[in-house]
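# step 3/5: fold
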Amino acid sequence: MQSIAIVDYGMGNVRSVQKALAHVAPNDKIFLTDDAALINQADRVVFPGQGAMGACMRAMNEHGLIDVIKKAAQEKPFLGICLGLQLLFDHSQENGGTDGLAIISGDVVKFQKSDLKIPHMGWNEVKQVSDHPLWHNIDDNARFYSVHSYYVKTQDNSIVTGTTDYGVNFTCAIEKDNIFAVQFHPEKSQHDGLQLLTNFVNWKVS
């Protein structure tokens, strides 16, 4: 049995993530926590997030989670979800400009086209840009559920593993070493979302 920590700093859709993981990994120990020691001890870490980036960074500071999240992202299988993707980057335009965790180089920018409905909400196809174990048994251009007004931009195309088109072709999934992070919500994306979570639970990082 392995342990999977879901980082709970009061700003994520953590209960639905926990239920989805418990469904795909019923024999594993899956728990919500803001305890740095428990996150350090976990075999895998899931980093969800919702809401405004500035509020999330303040909440993580208040919970003393900045350093432990950076450490986990360096050392063990790590899954970022929605704002948990954006927070990994250097800086966001949100809230008048907010610094992120600077684990991944790049910025978070707002959708600009005036004819787009913002937030981007609903089901969209995800183009698999590169092969990765977390895409196992998921068809290219499978549909996943998203809710967001900002998206990530990186100069390092080698980390982009999934893209979505919503007025602009944007990065919706990145991978780097033991990190995999997605803009969409696998816990809300039915069969393919559960498959991605299954793949994460079984992911053997080389």
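# step 4/5: annotate
The two ends are 20 Å apart (CA to CA).
# step 5/5: archive (pending)
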